[in-house]
Design a protein that fits this description.
- The chain is α+β, with helices and mostly antiparallel strands.
- It is built from 13 helices and 27 strands.
- Strands 2-3-1-4-5-6 form a six-stranded mixed sheet, sandwiched between helices.
- Strand 2 and strand 3 form a beta hairpin.
- The longest helix is centred in the first third of the chain and has 19 residues.
- The N and C termini lie far apart (52 Å).
- The C terminus is likely disordered.
């Protein structure tokens, strides 16, 4: 059996995930200078892993720090099995537990545990880590090893080989092609390239695809898997796709490539969810699907049935998995399966709930009634903004990119309301604070730098952010208020900011 498989790492910060991937594959997945300087993974890393049987896996290395759980979820959504890393000198820690919760929410049940740093933890540390792992992940094989000395690495490869032999590949599921984009860049002489894990179907050079949520048509110019050009890629593989018909600036992380007509942007999802007991009807949450995470509201329908009303669309189909997290204090509530990706807003209507129960339990839909159903009353048609590739939308996005962290006010954007709405709906523009707007990439980069500064300094002032990041006072204040609103930071009486979760623990 040589079908493609993707293996995702998981585990607490500093437990040695990236070092272990390097020991297994020979590839250093920390690509950014900031990652190497700070000794932690910030973005997703990728490497091929050749097993003793000759089987090759695609490995996704994810961050372990609590501030980058959203990045971890984006990587975990495309995996077939996991490699949980627990350090012998530290044992099971908070992010170990949260990553385990994310894997359960995504339905990823098969994996191997690597008890790393066995040379530092000694026999007692390894034994204690085994006990904790057995409680957290019952029945999952655990292998003690050391990336520094190489001890146990061959045994871990053998355990991964056995894992690969028993895990089903996405390639066996068939279906239309779909890839959720996690990186976008330009290659000289080739043009736009996107990367992601192929969730379903297959891709080949010349294929016509739809770029969502914009709806633009694109063509596959070429494919690579782990830096090797290929004619065809199958589900379960990490793929780089060279696209014709679109510029890099018109694609963003969180977009998806799909066979035309196979996926539609969804604003309301009916789901069967396993959530923590404190989840509440009407609660504000963050929903993670593919490489997107969007704010949403939880609507209880009874039993384990919930409706997710999303602030921005996700690119979901029935049967997909979602993760639900609480923004403040940040924590994973759970997750589950999408029962209806084309749902409308509704409450606990008996007919709808019964239909969802049948879908959840795999029961067949009843035969349609021979009596024609009454026609629904006409409703107002919601006016839609222009397409993302419309000239006015592209021009506005270029303005926002050029402005960067300078941000643009509503006055500066006068007359661009429809174009701005399109950019916000597709996740390319963000209202930062009050009446200021920025391109999503610039805002995300700036806020990530502020969070990194907070981790290094413990607290920051507006002036400190302004000086450290080279921003204007207006932009610094707006970005800090943006983080306050997202409950990432908390404002203290003396106008300093601290990370909300760390302040709560203090």
């Amino acid at each position: 059996m040589n079908e493609p498989l993707t293996l995702g790492t998981a585990g607490h910060i500093d437990h040695g995930k990236t070092a272990l991937v390097a020991a297994l594959t020979g590839v250093e997945t920390d690509r950014l200078p900031e990652e190497r300087a700070r000794g932690l993974t910030i973005v997703l890393g990728y490497a091929p892993l050749l097993l003793p049987s000759g089987r090759r896996l695609s490995v996704v290395d994810v961050p372990g720090h609590e501030r980058f759980v959203r990045t971890m979820v984006a990587g975990a959504t495309g995996i077939d099995a996991y490699l949980m890393v627990v350090a012998a000198d530290d044992g099971v820690m908070p992010q170990t537990r949260e990553h385990a919760a994310v894997l359960r929410a995504l339905g990823v049940r098969e994996g191997v545990v690597a008890i790393t740093k066995a040379d530092l933890g000694g026999d007692d540390g390894v034994a204690l880590a085994r006990e904790q792992v057995a409680e957290l992940l019952p029945g999952v094989p655990a292998v003690a090893c050391s990336s520094r000395t190489g001890a146990g690495i061959d045994g871990l490869r053998a355990a991964l080989d056995a894992l690969a032999a028993r895990v089903g590949s996405r390639a066996l599921g068939g279906g239309a092609a779909r890839l959720h984009v996690d990186r976008v860049f330009t290659v000289d002489g080739r043009g736009t390239v996107v990367t992601g894990t192929l969730w379903s179907g297959a891709l080949a050079a010349g294929d016509e695809l739809e770029l969502l949520p914009a709806g633009a048509r694109v063509r596959v110019r070429g494919l690579q898997i782990h830096d090797q050009a290929v004619e065809r890629a199958e589900a379960g593989q990490r793929v780089a796709v060279n696209l014709a018909g679109v510029r890099a600036r018109d694609v963003a992380r969180g977009d998806a490539l799909a066979a035309p007509g196979s996926v539609a942007p969804a604003h309301v999802l009916d789901c069967a969810l396993e959530l923590a007991g404190e989840a509440r009807h009407g609660e504000r949450v963050h929903v993670h699907h593919g490489t997107r995470d969007v704010p949403a509201r939880l609507i209880a329908l009874g039993e384990d049935l919930w409706q997710l009303r999303l602030d921005r669309p996700v690119l979901a189909r029935d049967g997909d998995r979602v993760v639900v997290r609480r923004p403040s204090p940040p924590d994973t509530l759970g997750g589950g399966v999408v029962l209806d990706a084309a749902a409308r807003r509704h409450g606990r209507r008996p007919d709808v709930v019964q239909r969802l129960r049948r879908r959840r339990d795999g029961e067949p839909e009843p035969a349609p009634s021979p009596i024609p159903a009454p026609q629904p009353r006409a409703v107002p048609v919601r006016r839609r903004g222009p397409a993302v590739d419309a000239p006015e939308v592209r021009a506005l996005e270029a303005r926002l990119r050029e402005a960067g962290t300078a941000l643009l006010s509503e006055a500066q954007l006068a007359g661009a309301g429809d174009a701005l709405r399109t950019l916000r709906d597709t996740g390319r523009a963000v209202r930062v604070s009050g009446r200021l707007y920025g391109h999503a990439d610039a805002v995300e980069e700036a806020t990530a730098r502020i969070v990194a500064l907070l981790h290094d300094e413990g607290s920051v002032t507006l002036a400190g952010v302004r000086d450290a990041l080279g921003l204007s006072r207006k932009s610094s204040q707006a970005l800090l208020e943006h983080l306050d609103g997202r409950r990432v930071t908390r404002r203290l009486p003396d106008d300093r900011r601290v990370l909300a979760a760390e302040h709560a623990r203090a």
